[in-house]
Design a protein that fits this description.
mainly beta; Beta-clip-like; 3% helix; globular; SET domain-containing protein-lysine N-methyltransferase; SET_dom_sf; transferase
């Protein structure tokens, strides 16, 4: 099996999601194989104290890697991965590394050009 590939923003389109009311979605422009990296989740990095600051603006794009590395995935430091929407039948999953303080999306299966990328946000997101 070939070595997994790491994709970049130029390999995707951001356009209206196939999910009604979801806003924008992320769509593959090229074939993505199972285990390929779709991209790393990026944004403003804050710590637990800043996260709990009552003056911090609300964001729905929060990814908790560890106490000292919480990614706010919107604003000038965010990238295309913030447009990956939720599905109970995802074609991608999130790999979080506490050691490397990173989060990346990996394909669960082959994804065809034009297909929207989805991952399961998990039960904590909906609470």
């Amino acid at each position: 099996m070939p070595k997994p590939k790491i994709f970049t923003e130029s390999d995707f389109d951001v356009r209206p999601s196939t999910i009604k009311g979801a806003g924008q979605g992320l769509f593959a422009k090229t074939h993505i194989r199972e285990e390929d990296t779709i991209g790393y989740y990026t944004g403003e990095v804050i710590d637990e104290n800043a996260f709990h600051d009552p003056e911090r603006p609300f964001s729905a794009y929060v990814l908790w890697v560890c106490r000292t590395h919480i990614i706010i995935g919107e604003g000038p430091k965010a990238n295309y991965t913030r447009y990956i929407n939720h599905s109970d039948e995802p074609n991608a999953f999130l790999v979080v590394s506490h050691r490397w303080k990173s989060a990346r999306f990996e394909a669960l299966c082959d994804i065809a050009p034009g297909e929207e990328i989805f991952f399961n946000y998990g039960e904590d997101y909906w609470e």
